[in-house]
Amino acid sequence: MATPALLIEGLTKDYAVGFRRRPHRALDGLTLRIEPGEVFGFLGPNGAGKTTTLKLLMQLIYPTAGRAEILGRPIGDIGARRRLGYLAENPSFYDYLTAEEMLTYFAQLFGYQLPERRQRVSDLLDRVGIGQERRFQLRKLSKGMVQRFGIAQALVNDPEILFLDEPMSGLDPLGRRDVRALILELREQGRTIFFSSHILSDAEAVCGRVAVLAGGRLVAQGRLTDLREFSARGWELVVANLSPDALERVRPRTARVTPISAGRYGLELPPDSAPDAFLAELVAAGASIVSLNPLRETLEDFFVERVTRAASDARH
Amino acid sequence: MRVIRHVAVNVFRESVRDRVPYTLLLFAVLLIAASRVLAQLTAGQDVKIVKDLGLAAIAAFGLFIAVFLGVGLVSKEVERRSIYAILAKPVSRAQFIAGKYAGLVLTLFVNVMVMTGALYLVLAWLMATATPAERASWDAPAMDPEMLGAVLMIFIELMLVTAIALFFSAFTSPLLSAACTFGLYVIGHFTGELRDFDTLTDSRAVGWLTRGLYHLLPDFSAFDVKLQVVHGIHVPAGYLATTAAYGFAYVAALILGGTYIFTRRDLK
Question: Is residue B23 part of a domain?
Fold first, then answer.
């Protein structure tokens, strides 16, 4: 079996909290295996333990129990760090350095020499869309630009594996689209990407597999489409130019009909309906299809359900 | 060494753009203004006063830079989380601490050199405008090279203050680090009293305690040779070398201690 890109076994972290230093378990026995070339989504609500996991993998904090390997080497190994990139949640850098100087500094830490270093820095700043601002001090950049800079510094060593903690945070829709495109591009290049998010749509757009954390525990993992909790619980269809006769014909097969404006309706279809045949029938009746979207349980619903279930199990 | 050098150069660059230039400017203005006024008010003592004031100002402004930049060297990086991106690179925590320390020492070195240069400039101006009778009344020449010995001692003292600030910065908040560093600095100027305290007490335990503290706490008074230099009293090279070695040994112990603590703590 090939060496996994990331192997986590029973990783546990307790923090001492409060005046009496009571232990609080932020991460409880996490076990994961991620193969090379995977884009892996690490999902969970705030406080689920995602950032704790990433900090443990970067050895910014030390585990209470368990172990992990990155590219076959134990976490903290300097050799492994040469081959990884990391973007922290809400990253922060030196205020008084320019984007170019700061990225040059990071490139120097990897031992890049001129002229390759200069070229790499320039290309990366252009690639993440802040090439025009390369001579701006970092304190003068917007939050979204700092996030883009954070992505650039994570890529400075051309890493084999990337750890991104909430990479879409602080980005506008254009920025989110760019980051998704970048992740897909990196996937095409065969890199492994482990990214945390609390937004399901981010994961859906780019991830092969996901793991879901709640309360420090792994509550689900697998392909998003295979996870029962995230399978479509129906379809939401928006149609225009739908005649009253046609509407009455299809109404019995819908779960709900919501009028939007004249001839325009929102139709909710049950999960076992066949949307293809339904759409064909509507088009034949002269209607125009505006949109069709799967209705899924949101990540938030999932968390609430799982956390409630865990609490209920604990009581019994 | 390459990594330490890059971290150090970066600390220097960040420090220079931060607040250090303003301290330098303030120092230069104060020094020049004071020397002009004092040259008019005092008869024949102007060189001595300018030297005294100048060396004291180098020590004081150096202390300001060492403490206020030193206490934030590590703790501010942890608070702001700027350390995360650095430690995820091939940089060990020991290299990070060593680089941070070297960078601030480099900043201090440049500052002390600029301030010393300004002091010598003012002294050169006084020498150029003094009459032969005034020059004859001076204890030591205006451009006395012995002053460099005093400056060296100030610099090593500042290295020690920086190491103390960095040590506390490795595990406490900037405010607490500043309080502890200032506290040690003040106590360190009175360790002679601790050494002789057993002659004032009948309690052997208190005597041992004060003796122990005397050996444990840094003796900052050993670095103070300003008075001798200002009055033209020669400071032997052997004394300077021994005191410098004492300072370096203390610095090494503090850096090692700070690194030991820092490599074991969680960066939350």
Answer: yes
pLDDT the model gives residue B138: 75
- Within 10 A of B159 (CB to CB), how many other CB atoms are there? 24
Q: Among all residues of chain B, which has the CA nearest to that of A163?
A: B88
Indicate whether B15 pLDDT > 60: yes
CB pair distance less than 8 Å for B18 and A96: yes
- Is A21's Cβ below 8 Å from some Cβ in B? no
Tens digit of each residue's pLDDT (9 = 90 or more) over B128-149: 887 787 777 777 777 788 889 9
**Which CATH code for domain A232-294?**
3.30.70.3100
Give chain B's domain count.
1
Comparing CB atoms, the residue among A15, A58, A82 nearest residue B87 is: A58
The verdict on A176 touching B (C-beta cutoff 8 Å) is no
CATH number of A6-229: 3.40.50.300
B18 and chain A in contact, CB less than 8 A: yes
Residue numbers in B near A77 (CB within 8 A): none
Say if B241 falls within a structural domain.
yes
Where would I find the H helices in chain B? Answer: 2-18, 20-41, 46-70, 75-80, 82-87, 93-129, 132-136, 147-169, 174-188, 191-195, 204-216, 226-230, 237-264
Strand partners, A265: A239, A259
Determine, for residues A108 and B84 on separate chains, whether the beta-carbon distance falls below 8 Å. no
Of A225, A290, A281, the residue nearest A254 (C-alpha): A281
Q: List, edge to edge, every strand of the sheet that includes A192-197.
A: A84-87, A161-165, A192-197, A39-43, A209-214, A217-223
3-class secondary-structure state, position A278: helix
B-chain residues near A90 (CB < 8 A): 81
Contacts of A148 in chain B (CB under 8 A): none
For residue B84, the chain A residues in CB contact (below 8 A) are 55, 58, 60, 86, 88, 91
In 3-state terms chain A splits into helix, strand, coil percentages (rounded to 5) of 35, 30, 35
Q: Say if strands A288-294 and A209-214 run parallel, antiparallel, or are unpaired.
A: unpaired
* CA B17 – CA B21 distance, rounded (Å): 8
- Four-point Cα dihedral A275, A280, A284, A287, nearest 10: 50
Q: Is A290 helix (H, G, I), strand (E, B) or coil?
A: strand
Domains A6-229 and A232-294 share a fold: no
Domain limits for position B85: 2-189+224-264
Q: What is the pLDDT of residue B132?
A: 82
- How do the domains of chain A map onto residue ranges? 6-229, 232-294
Q: How far apart are CA A47 and CA A221, in angstroms?
A: 18
pLDDT band at B193 (very low <50, low <70, confident <90, very high): confident
Query: Is the Cβ pair A109, B14 closer than 8 Å?
Result: no
- Closest C-alpha among A27, A24, A23 to residue A13: A27
Degrees to nearest 5, angle at CA B11 with B7 and B15: 170
Q: For residue B216, is it within any domain?
A: no
Q: Which residues contact A238 (CB under 8 A, 6 or more apart)?
A: A260, A264, A265, A266, A267, A289, A290, A291, A292
Q: Quick one: pLDDT at residue B232?
A: 82
Judged by a CB distance cut-off of 8 A, whether residue B82 touches chain A is yes
